[in-house]
Amino acid sequence: MIQESEASEPEATRRDADVAESSRANRGWWDRNADEYQTEHGTFLGDDRFVWGPEGLDEVEAELLGPPEGLKGRDVLEIGAGAAQCSRWLTAQGARPVALDISHRQLQHALRIGGSFPLVCADAGALPFADGSFDLACSAYGALPFVADPRRVLREVRRVLRPGGRLVFSVTHPIRWAFPDEPGPEGLSVSASYFDRTPYVEQDDEGRAVYVEHHRTLGDRVRDVVTSGFRLVDLVEPEWPVWNTSEWGGWSPLRGNLIPGTAIFVCERSEVGSSPAEGRGRD
């Protein structure tokens, strides 16, 4: 789980948090912590790289959105863009990205670094774009780990994609929820049920959520994708590379060489049927 420190230490717990509470808490958290986040992780992320997660898998080598030469002239929506590093890389390939984030402060960092693409401050569950506006959508640890209703987000993404459009998104690998969020040996022993979907919540002294992260099992994520009107093309679990000696929260070379830390879902907009079907799996 991605967490950063706050001035006053909140209480960490596991409890329910609905769509509105999760959105409100995470907008505030990222606004308050954007400066620290960019200071701590900005060098690793770069200003114009497209990195899918703490392992350092780069879109240059992964080509999950397709060959770089095929991105020229494509309209791309980056969801949970942060300082828009990925959008900057997409621009360099000749694409036309739009960088969207719920946090105004994160987008101020995007302005600080610079770029010629639009920045949009909005909730991923209510995208302010017309149907069929984009050829591609991408999200590197953006939005989906933090929303209470991922299907709402996925259906919105499907709506704004053109027929045949591709969505690629990365999240914390679901198996990590069974382990403590620690980079050392203490993070290698199972401490919780993988099947416990109760959200992780940090709350203030009055019980108000200030940070929320939601757990979905691997099966849940697959059902979310398929029942929201996508076809799952690939599921990538990046291995930890030898060159990466960095620690990022609970991600580390020690853990990365033993258990997966990131799951990347490569999806395409399904044209089968008139509307996404409801799944029979647990929501």
Automatic annotation (TrEMBL):
InterPro entries named in the record: Methyltransf_11, Methyltransf_Superfamily, SAM-dependent_MTases_sf
Q: Does the keyword Transferase apply?
A: yes
**Matching SUPFAM superfamilies, A to Z?**
S-adenosyl-L-methionine-dependent methyltransferases
* Pfam families associated with the record: Methyltransf_11 (PF08241)
The record places domain Methyltransferase type at 77-169
Record's protein name: SAM-dependent methyltransferase
Instruction: Give a GO biological-process term.
Output: methylation
In which domain of life is the source organism classified?
Bacteria
According to the UniProt entry, its GO molecular function terms are: S-adenosylmethionine-dependent methyltransferase activity
| Region Disordered, annotated ranges | 1-24
- Asked whether the keyword Repeat is assigned, the reply is no
The record's keywords, sorted A to Z, are:
Methyltransferase, Transferase
Please tell me the species this chain comes from: Streptomyces qaidamensis
